[in-house]
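Consortium newsletter contribution from the modelling node. Members have asked for a concrete example of what our holo predictions look like. Here is one, prepared for the N-acetyl-L-norvaline complex that several groups have been discussing at recent meetings.
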Amino acid sequence: MRNFTSVYDIGDLKVALQKAFEIKKNRFGFSDLGKNKTLLLIFFNSSLRTRLSTQKAGMNLGMNTMVLDVNQGAWKLETERGAIMDGDKTEHLLEAIPVMGSYCDIIGVRSFARFENKEEDYSEKVLNEFIQYSGRPVFSMEAATRHPLQSYADLITIEEYKKTERPKVVLSWAPHPKALPQAVPNSFAEWMNTTDYEFVITHPAGYELDAQFAGKAKVEYDQKKAFEGADFIYAKNWAAFADPNYGKVLNKDRSWTVDSEKMALTNNAYFMHCLPVRRNMIVTDEVIESPQSIVIPEAANREISAQAVLMRLLEDNF
Ligand code: AN0
Ligand code: CP
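And here is the predicted structure:
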């Protein structure tokens, strides 16, 4: 594996899961693998979990880690090639990337969709420039269209909690006041479609995901119907994908909030969310605080997925 940007890079999911459980049993058992290797984490957007879990994973492997918040303390970066740089941007990404690459061995990048240009977002322009110009293995810490470290942790969590071989997993849109990227639901759908689980997506009309990610999933517009018999409810907000509403919030309909009444329709389902979550918009206090809520172990598994990915990158490239 040279780079990690999607489920397609990881190979057989059964092997990836075995690796994750091996790490979970003995996370300090590989502490020589990253000796004298430098991990650089670049954030164009905020983060709590990704920042801490990836840094912790690097430390478990004996790596040295550097973190750069591009918007806090670095020079303001131009991303457009051909731009006449007479404005507020001091440095071009095309110099900044190879310079950053020269100080490290592996680079993680967080760069969300900007919702200014759909083609640019869905071409993963920034992430691909890091792959092309850094000279280093690159992994996504949530890019414009996917959040594979999150999805890997989600898969580990479902495998740990599932009570049947083929659980029914429901990805449910839920309301949020601001426009959020499709990266988490796209990626979750992509990973779920790679398993043999029963996978259903529910959302109001107008929130259809890009077909390349929704894939073979069943789309059910009636949220309550979708919840019937579910073993896992995975809530997430996302802004519209389809034109002409790309990146827009079409409604903040709180009838889509996940509450106890809806959870009662399920097969005593576990509640999941990648976090950060807005309570009483996405999910009620009651549901997120219930014994069925597994959002904390889900977040804890981010350390495991990050360590598994870093191990592969170290083993395959050095
Ligand atoms: C981000 C998103 O929805 O993609 C990050 C989630 C991991 N969430 C927010 O910006 C609130
Ligand atoms: N789930 C997740 O990626 O959280 P952060 O945005 O806090 O990193």
